C-alpha cells in the first residue's frame, strides 16, 4: 500500500502539492487524475523518493521508498518513457536495469514478451515510436515483478489498440493483488480502467472515492425542454412555471432549457397547464468527463481563452464527504501476457453506463451529453 500523509511540495514560491493525504490499496487500479500542473508527477516523484517532500511523508508498505530493501523488486514505475539511452537496444536497456537490480537476464525476455516488443528487442530504442517507447517503459516497470506499480500517463501516444492493451494490463496486475497507481488527464479512460479515483487540483485533494461512487455522485440526470423558437414568450412562460413548481431551470446555448428536479411527465403536465407547446422533451445524463471537468474547473492552470466550459464549476454540496474505498481481496497470481482482442471482437467496446441514483437529479450546469 502507498500512503501519503500531509504531503506538501514547494519549489520556491510555487506550491506544487499541498497537504495531500491518501492511500493506494493493493488489489485495485487507482486512477490519479488532475488537470495539467495539478501535481500528479510531483506526487509520484515523491512516492519514488526522487523528490523530497517539503512537509508530510509518503510510504510504501510503511517505509519511505529510499528505505525499502531492494526497492526495484518491490516497486516498478513508468514516469517518463523518453528517459532511455536511445543508442541502446531495447533488450540492452532492460538488461542494464536488470543487472543493477540483480534481476536475472531471462526476466528481460519475459517482460519483452509481455509488452509485445520481442520482435524489436535488438533495435535501438532511439528509433522507437512513442507507443513503442511507452511499452519499453512499461517493460522496465515490470522487470522486478514488483508488488507496487506506478504509471505516469501510460497511454500517452498509444493508439486505440495500445490503450486497450494498457487498460487490460493494469486490471490484470491489480487482479493479481498488486497495488497499481496510474495518473491520467482523462476521466473517460480512468472510468474504464480504474476501480478507485484520487482527483487533485492545484496540488490539493478534490476527491478520493470508488469509480462507482464517482459515477453515482456525478452522473446527474436532467431534462432538455424546447419550445418553438419563433415564440420566445412561450419559453419564458414555461421557465416560470417550471421554477414555480420547484425545478431548476437553466438556458442552454441552443435556446433549449435544462431542467433538473422535475420528472419528465411532470414537466409535460406543467407545460400543458401553462398552454405551452413543446418541440422537445428529452432525458439526459451528464457524462463523467463533464463531472470531472466541473470538479476541477476552478483548479485549471492552463485554459484556452476560447474555453466553452468556463463558469461550469459547482461547489460540492455541504457536508459532502467521499466514502471509504472497498478493495476486493484478490489472491496473487503469476505472470501472464494480456490476451489480444479476439478476431472480429470490437477492441474498443466499453462497459455499459452505470445507472444514476434516484436522488441524482439536482442542479447541474453542464452540457447535455450521454455516456460515461
Ligand atoms: N522542478 C520544478 N521546479 C519548479 N516547479 C515545478 C517543478 N516541478 C513541477 N513544478 C510545478 O509544480 C506544478 C505541478 O507540476 P506537475 O508536473 O507535478 O503536474 P502534473 O499534474 O503532473 O501536470 P501534467 O499533467 O501537465 O503532467 C506545476 O505548476 C509545475 O510547473
From TrEMBL:
User: Which residue windows does the record flag with biased composition (Basic and acidic residues)?
Assistant: 361-372
SUPFAM superfamilies referenced in this protein's UniProt entry, alphabetically: P-loop containing nucleoside triphosphate hydrolases
User: Compositional bias (Low complexity) spans?
Assistant: 347-360
Which Pfam families does the entry link to? ABC_tran
Annotated region described as Disordered, given as residue ranges: 304-372
Question: What range(s) does the ABC transporter domain occupy?
Answer: 2-227
Matching PROSITE patterns? ABC_TRANSPORTER_2
Q: Tell me where the signal peptide lies.
A: none
Sorted alphabetically, the keyword list is: ATP-binding, Nucleotide-binding, Transport
User: InterPro entries given for it?
Assistant: AAA+_ATPase, ABC_transporter-like_ATP-bd, P-loop_NTPase
Q: What residue spans carry the Pro residues bias annotation?
A: 315-328
Has UniProt tagged this entry with the keyword Zinc? Answer: no
What protein name is recorded for this chain?
ABC-2 type transport system ATP-binding protein
Citing just one GO molecular function, the answer is: ATP binding
Would I find Transcription regulation among this entry's keywords? Answer: no
Instruction: Spell out the Gene3D superfamilies in the cross-references.
Output: P-loop containing nucleotide triphosphate hydrolases
The family this protein is said to belong to: Belongs to the ABC transporter superfamily.
Amino acid at each position: 500500500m502507498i500512503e501519503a500523509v500531509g504531503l506538501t511540495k514547494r519549489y520556491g514560491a510555487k506550491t506544487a502539492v499541498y497537504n495531500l493525504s491518501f492511500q493506494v490499496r493493493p488489489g485495485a487500479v487507482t486512477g490519479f487524475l488532475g488537470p495539467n500542473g495539478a501535481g500528479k508527477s510531483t506526487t509520484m516523484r515523491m512516492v519514488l523518493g526522487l523528490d523530497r517532500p517539503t512537509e508530510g511523508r509518503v510510504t510504501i508498505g510503511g517505509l519511505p521508498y529510499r528505505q525499502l530493501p531492494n526497492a526495484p523488486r518491490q516497486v516498478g514505475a513508468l514516469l517518463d518513457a523518453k528517459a532511455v539511452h536511445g543508442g541502446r537496444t531495447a533488450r540492452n536497456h532492460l538488461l542494464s536495469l536488470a543487472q543493477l537490480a540483480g534481476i536475472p537476464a531471462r526476466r528481460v525476455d519475459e517482460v519483452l514478451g509481455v509488452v509485445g516488443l520481442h520482435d524489436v528487442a535488438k533495435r535501438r530504442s532511439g528509433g522507437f515510436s512513442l507507443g513503442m517507447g511507452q511499452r519499453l517503459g512499461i517493460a522496465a516497470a515490470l522487470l522486478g515483478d514488483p508488488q507496487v506499480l506506478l504509471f505516469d500517463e501510460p497511454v500517452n501516444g498509444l493508439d486505440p489498440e495500445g490503450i486497450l492493451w494498457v487498460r487490460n494490463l493494469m486490471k490484470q496486475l491489480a487482479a493479481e493483488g498488486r497495488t497499481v497507481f496510474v495518473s491520467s488527464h482523462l476521466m473517460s479512460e480512468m472510468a474504464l480502467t480504474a476501480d478507485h479515483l484520487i482527483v487533485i487540483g492545484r496540488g490539493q485533494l478534490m476527491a478520493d472515492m470508488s469509480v462507482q461512487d464517482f459515477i453515482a455522485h456525478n452522473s446527474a440526470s436532467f431534462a432538455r425542454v424546447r419550445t418553438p423558437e419563433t415564440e420566445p414568450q412561450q419559453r419564458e412562460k414555461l421557465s416560470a412555471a417550471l421554477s414555480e413548481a420547484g425545478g431548476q431551470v437553466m438556458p442552454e446555448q441552443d435556446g433549449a432549457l435544462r431542467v433538473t428536479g422535475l420528472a419528465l411527465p411532470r414537466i409535460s403536465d406543467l407545460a400543458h397547464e401553462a398552454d405551452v407547446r413543446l418541440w422537445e422533451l428529452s432525458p439526459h445524463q451528464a457524462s463523467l468527463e463533464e463531472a470531472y471537468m466541473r470538479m476541477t474547473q476552478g483548479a485549471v492552470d492552463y485554459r484556452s481563452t476560447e474555453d466553452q466550459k468556463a463558469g461550469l464549476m459547482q461547489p460540492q454540496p455541504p457536508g459532502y464527504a467521499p466514502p471509504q474505498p472497498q478493495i476486493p481481496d484478490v489472491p496473487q497470481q503469476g505472470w501472464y501476457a494480456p490476451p489480444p482482442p479476439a478476431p472480429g471482437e470490437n477492441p474498443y467496446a466499453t462497459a455499459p453506463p452505470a445507472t444514476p441514483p434516484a436522488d441524482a437529479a439536482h442542479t447541474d450546469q453542464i452540457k447535455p451529453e450521454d455516456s460515461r
